[in-house]
Amino acid sequence: MTVAGFRWIWLLLFVPALASAQSLPANGKRVSIFNRSMYYEEYGKGHTLLLLHGGAGSHDDFKSVIPELAKHYHVIAPDSPGHGRSEQADSLSYPLLAGYFSAFIDKLKLKDVYVIGFSDGGNAALLLAANRPDKVTRVMASGANATTAGLGNESNSSSAGFTPENVEQHSADWLKWYKSLSPQPDQWKKFVDDSRKMWLRPLAIPEASLKKIKCPVLLVKGEKDIITPEHGAYLNRMVKDSRLEVIPGSSHYTFAQKPERMIALAKDFFPE
Q: What 3-state DSSP class applies to 121?
């Protein structure tokens, strides 16, 4: 397996400028969830739109779309546990992420929430919709997967390569960025190990959870996504009120590569 084959190597292309975990942006806020500090940013007014980012990233996954979305919605973009400026949880799993975001919604007393999730955030968004029909009313999930089989062998091999040793050897820029934001920079190896274990668990979203989802769901995948065409069709079948949109010319990283198209889809799908 070559370094270029790693699923997470894209981070080297999109690592933001180094910042400080202690120096918060003007829109930055913190809230305690399960006795862990969770960081989030808040923009705009209107209907609440919760943005859930991908694995090994941060809310910056959405930096290309937040300015425009904030003109139409009340955008809230948290950093997942252990990601960005948020403290680590004891471990990582998709049910754990969904549980944190469920508690986050309650803590902020949010109602009638729209959710956009990318990659790992897409998985969490679908679980959140299944578990919180009282709060979540629409979901747009890009690059979500219910099983590792839905990713294909190459992607799973690259996930297995996300180890502390490989990160130190091949991803110095990402590691420097991660440490610059994290309130627990010395625990980066735990984060890498927890992420890898989460990615490699065969079942991300049980079929029963997919069938529980009642709200409208827009499933999105890139034309050249790591999500297989068959798996995209499977999710579309399992989620009752869903439709599948394939983005021409895009890989897995739809928001970074096709921001205008993703903004247009979101504005069409989420009533203001």
A: helix
Measured distance CA(212)–CA(70) in Å, rounded: 30
- CATH number for the domain formed by residue range(s) 25-152+203-269: 3.40.50.1820
Tokens standing for residue 18: 């180094």
Interacting residues of 73 by C-beta distance below 8 A, sequence separation 6+: 44, 46, 47, 48, 49, 114, 270, 272
- Residue 21 confidence (pLDDT) above 60: no
Interhelix angle 188-200/172-181, nearest 10 degrees = 110
Find the helix packing angle between 120-131 and 94-107, rounded to 10°: 60
**Domains of the chain, residue spans:** 25-152+203-269
CA distance 245 to 83: 28
Poorest-confidence range of 12-21, 93-102, 226-235? 12-21
Chain centroid offset of residue 201 CA: 17
Interstrand relation of 28-33 and 74-78 (parallel, antiparallel or unpaired): unpaired
* Residue 116 one-letter amino acid: I
Question: Residue 126 carries which side chain, given as an amino acid letter?
Answer: L
Question: If you ran DSSP here, which 8-state letter would residue 222 be given?
Answer: E
CB count in 10 Å sphere of residue 133: 13
| Dihedrals phi, psi of 28, to nearest 5 degrees | -80, 140
52 φ, ψ to 5°?
Answer: -115, 115
User: Stretch 214-231: mean pLDDT, rounded?
Assistant: 97
